[in-house]
Design brief:
- By secondary structure, this protein is mainly α.
- It contains twelve helices and eight strands.
- It has a three-stranded mixed β-sheet.
- Helix 6 packs across helix 7.
């Protein structure tokens, strides 16, 4: 009887693997990449005790520990075993994310995964696999975008390490990053990526300001520079979101009989205008940073496409909603707000 049951299970697993061959292959690739990273990490305590590591690196690691403690003790995020180990990337990217969008609609391609739900992007630890998917999506006529990823969250299923690329960030950027990822481990709603990313962005920015004020004071350069950076990107966000509204209006004006050459011409003309008008954005940051859309006239080949704009909708569209709800309904009391969110929205 046991042999028969075991045989049935094996047959079912083989059938599933054949039926969902691509999903199984992708899952194995991602698991292998994640395990490779975890297998090659070092405990943070070893890094801090090693005289071969520079003090500047150690200070950033200690700062991450402080940010994590602040996130739990002062913001109320869930305790986590993450960021207690270190992975050296040796200056190389390790994860790439692909987004894709319809060419004349702001509708993202979506991918479905067991347990965690639906995502409007797909990550790859293997660059050649990512490039293959981009080529396939382009053959379908979709706008695509591939970008390197500086951090990600395994939502508490694994203990995420500190990546060596973290240590190149400023204090404010590092605080925002760590708090963003810890927010995912505290609250992550299945099949609602836009909500999850917008929430994590909101909490990351709010938490970073609170941490910097607590550690350095509001008159410190770290606080002022982060505040100026945040103000610049709020202006930039609004500019790009306004651009998405222009594109959406344009695409809705297209008729079935509108020639593709006309659609293409109007689309790229509008995107060019969005790019050119970004030159008017003021920037008061103490240290300069590369803007996501450079201040020069770009050729058509270098213009951002719909996949870029759909990414902004995923991460930034709901920022005002969270800010208004937090300030008006909860009097800017973050612990009350977080408790409300956790009680209202079921998390993985």
């Amino acid at each position: 009887m046991l042999k028969k049951t075991g045989l049935i299970i094996v047959v079912m697993l083989v059938t599933l693997a054949i039926w969902q061959r691509e999903l199984v292959s992708y899952g194995w690739m991602q698991a292998r990449g994640q395990l490779h990273i975890l297998w090659n990490t070092q405990p943070v305590d070893e890094i801090l005790a090693d005289p071969a590591y520079p003090d500047s690196l150690k200070k950033k690691i200690e700062l991450i520990r402080e940010i994590k403690r602040f996130s739990v003790d002062s913001l109320g995020l869930e305790p986590s075993g993450s960021y207690e180990s270190f992975y050296d990337q040796h200056g190389k990217p390790i994860l790439w994310v692909i987004t894709a969008c319809e060419p004349y609609q702001l509708i993202a391609r979506k991918w479905h995964f067991p347990i965690i739900g639906t995502f409007s992007y797909k990550g790859f630890f293997e660059k050649d696999r990512a490039d293959t998917l981009v080529a396939e999506l382009k053959k379908e006529g979709l706008d695509t975008r591939i970008g390197e990823v500086s951090a990600w969250s395994t939502l508490g299923f694994l203990n995420d390490p500190i990546l060596s690329s973290f240590l190149d960030r400023s204090e404010g950027s590092l605080a925002e990053l760590i708090i963003h990822e810890l927010t995912h481990g505290t609250l992550f709603i299945k099949n609602n990526l836009e909500y999850n990313e917008n929430l994590a962005d909101f909490v990351g920015e709010y938490g970073a300001l609170r941490f910097l004020a607590w550690k350095y004071g509001t008159n410190a350069g770290q606080y002022k520079n982060y505040l100026a950076t945040k103000a610049f990107y709020e202006r930039y966000d609004e500019h790009i979101l306004h651009g998405t509204r222009l594109l959406d209006s344009l695409y809705h004006s297209f008729k079935p009989e509108t020639p593709l050459v006309v659609k293409d011409s109007l689309k790229w003309k509008t995107i060019q205008q969005i790019v050119d008008s970004s030159d008017t954005l003021t920037d008061q940051r103490i240290t300069s940073a590369v803007r996501l859309v450079k201040k020069r006239r770009l050729s058509k080949l270098n213009l951002p496409n719909n996949a870029y704009f759909i990414g902004y909708l995923t991460y930034r569209k709901q920022q005002n909603r969270f800010r208004q709800e937090f300030e008006t309904r909860f009097g800017s009391n973050f612990r009350r707000y977080l408790t409300y969110l956790k009680e209202t929205y079921p998390s993985l």
